[in-house]
From TrEMBL, chain A:
Protein name: Hemoglobin subunit alpha-D
Domain Globin as annotated: residue spans: 1-121
Family according to the record: Belongs to the globin family.
Domain of life: Eukaryota
Pfam families: Globin
InterPro entries, alphabetized: Globin (IPR000971), Globin-like_sf (IPR009050), Globin/Proto (IPR012292), Hemoglobin_a-typ (IPR002338), Hemoglobin_oxygen_transport (IPR050056)
BP terms from Gene Ontology: hydrogen peroxide catabolic process
GO CC entries: blood microparticle; haptoglobin-hemoglobin complex; hemoglobin complex
Keywords from the named record: Heme, Iron, Metal-binding, Oxygen transport, Transport
UniProt organism field: Struthio camelus australis
Transport recorded as keyword: yes
Cross-referenced PANTHER family: HEMOGLOBIN FAMILY MEMBER (PTHR11442), HEMOGLOBIN SUBUNIT ZETA (PTHR11442:SF41)
UniProtKB/TrEMBL annotation, chain B:
Sequence similarity: Belongs to the globin family.
Presence of the UniProt keyword Heme in the record: yes
Keywords: Heme, Iron, Metal-binding, Oxygen transport, Transport
Taxonomy, superkingdom: Eukaryota
Any GO molecular function: oxygen carrier activity
Protein's name in the database: Hemoglobin subunit epsilon
Domain Globin intervals: 1-144
Pfam families to which the protein is assigned, alphabetical: Globin
Length: 121, 144
C-alpha cells in the first residue's frame, strides 16, 4: 500500500521487485511486522529494543556512481510516517469498526514512538 | 487529476454517509490528537472518548466539515478557489495551525478504510491521500 499510495517511497527500494505482491515485498513486509511485534513486547523500552534498526533507518548508505565513493546521506525517516499511515489503514481495513477511536489513538501513539526511536540516531 | 483518480474519488464519495463519517472523523481527531480539543472549548463535554463520540456539537460540526469536503469532491479542478474563504477564516478567526488539516485528512482516510474495508483499495487510497493533501494545502494557502 505504501508503494502505491506514496510512490516516492519506492526510491528507498531500488533493488526490489516492486510489483504488487512480489516475494520481496511480502518478505520485507513480514520483517517489518515482526519488528513491530517485538516493539509491542517492549513498549517501555523501545529505544533499546529498536537500537540496531535505528542505525539502519537513520542513515542511508549511498554510493556515488561517478567516484564510487560511499557516504551517508539522509535516510528514510520521514517516510516512516507514511508507512505508519498505511499500516493503520490496513488495520482499519481488517478490523472495521473494531479499529475503534481508542485503538486508533493507541496505535497512532505507538507507531509515532517507534518512528521517533528509529529517527533518534 | 487523471480520469481514474476522479472515478476512484467519486465512487467512494457516493457511498459515504456524510453525517456518520464526518462525525467519526472529527471525533477521532479530538481523541487521537487531544491538543485539537483547544479549538472546540465551547463544545461542552470532551472529557473521554465516549463523551466525544456522543457529543452532539462534535457530530454536527463533523458533518459540516465533511459536507464542505464534498465541495472539493465536486470541484476537483478548482479546489484552491473553493477553499479560499475558508482558508482566511481558519487563519484570521480560528487560528488553526495548518498541520492539523493534514492530520484530519489522514484520519478521514482511516475512517474510510474501516468502513469500506477491502473496497478501499491501494489505488483508492492513493487518490484520496492526494485529495486530502490538496485540500489541506488549499486551506493553508491564505495564511499570513
Amino acid at each position: 500500500r505504501m508503494f502505491i499510495t506514496y510512490p516516492q517511497t519506492k526510491t528507498y527500494f531500488p533493488h526490489f521487485d516492486l510489483h504488487p505482491g512480489s516475494e520481496q515485498i511480502r518478505g520485507h513486509g513480514k520483517k517489518v511486522a515482526n519488528a513491530l511485534g517485538n516493539a509491542v513486547k517492549s513498549l517501555d523500552n523501545l529505544s533499546q529494543a529498536l537500537s540496531e534498526l535505528s542505525n539502519l533507518h537513520a542513515y542511508n548508505l549511498r554510493v556515488d556512481p561517478v567516484n564510487f565513493k560511499a557516504s551517508w546521506g539522509p535516510g528514510p525517516v520521514f517516510a516512516l510516517q507514511l508507512l505508519s499511515q498505511c499500516f493503520q489503514v490496513v488495520l482499519a481495513v481488517h478490523m472495521g469498526k473494531d479499529y475503534t477511536p481508542e485503538v486508533h489513538a493507541a496505535y497512532d501513539k505507538f507507531l509515532t514512538a517507534v518512528a521517533a526511536v528509529l529517527a533518534e540516531k | 487529476w487523471t480520469a481514474e483518480e476522479k472515478q476512484l474519488i467519486a465512487s467512494v464519495w457516493n457511498k459515504v454517509n456524510v453525517e456518520e463519517c464526518g462525525a467519526e472523523a472529527l471525533a477521532r481527531l479530538l481523541i487521537v490528537y487531544p491538543w485539537t480539543q483547544r479549538f472546540f472549548s465551547s463544545f461542552g463535554n470532551l472529557s473521554s472518548p465516549t463523551a466525544i463520540l456522543g457529543n452532539p456539537k462534535v457530530r454536527a460540526h463533523g458533518r459540516k466539515v465533511l459536507t464542505s469536503f464534498g465541495e472539493a469532491v465536486k470541484n476537483l479542478d478548482n479546489i484552491k478557489t473553493t477553499y479560499s474563504k475558508l482558508s482566511e477564516l481558519h487563519c484570521e478567526k480560528l487560528h488553526v495551525d495548518p498541520e492539523n488539516f493534514r492530520l484530519l485528512g489522514d484520519i478521514l482516510i482511516i475512517v474510510l478504510a474501516s468502513h469500506f474495508a477491502r473496497d478501499f483499495t491501494p489505488a483508492c487510497q492513493f487518490a484520496w491521500q492526494k485529495l486530502v493533501g490538496v485540500v489541506a494545502h488549499a486551506l493553508a494557502r491564505k495564511y499570513h
